[in-house]
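seq as requested:
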Amino acid sequence: MVDRLFSDERLARLYDRLCAGREDFGFYLPLVLSAESVLDVGCGTGELLRRARGAGHTGRLCGLDPAEAMLGRAARHRTDIEWVLGDLAAVGWDREFDLVVMTGHAFQVLVTDDDVRTALAAMRSALTEGGRLVFETRNPSAREWERWTPEHVVEAADDTGAVVRLRSEAETPVEGGLVSFTQTFTSPAWDGPRVSRSTLRFLDAPALEDLLTDAGLAITEQYGDWSGGPLTESSPEIITVAARACAPGRSGASARAVRRRGRV
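struct tokens:
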């Protein structure tokens, strides 16, 4: 099921405004502009691909998302980009994209090993020889969920100018790297609050590496923040660049020997 944050048309219209000033676009946009064909998995409203096209990208841009409300926003903004409604389990691209990205911590909605394996297999299949997969996941050591508390409020104006307030609250205790939380949206212009509940998985770097290696993807670079800083125990992010490499299921001894920037 798609979380209400993404399936509710009114909330989908607010998404880009509530996420204004995202740091990750400064990292991802140059990568997209340097690739001839790009797949954005979990593209949401398609802002990254829309920026790339606006900046002069003339190749193939394709956005995939399971939320009709979000993808509808993307399609209304640009018709010169492919927008595909669905998820990775339902598509069968074969060596079509030089770059596959998964931004906005979308990787963390894959809450089981089987979910991750299915997604990685599909993304590896979509990559051309030498193609790259780039994505990020929050570093569990930084325990960001501890800051998802009601006093941290984000505000944005909707299409009518009415102020909408968003507050998040994580549930405790946190077990098995899974964090469930609620996001509550309120506005004086609405007849009541809208509540979205989500669960995310916080994978550490060694577990992530094992899953990538088993999927036939080799880590080539890792960073701990959007400025390209090294990945350390206290880094907020685990930003990973991986290349299509060995066949799935191969022993990862040689892949693990690849030198990675700033790895813990």
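The first strand starts at residue 37 and ends at 41.
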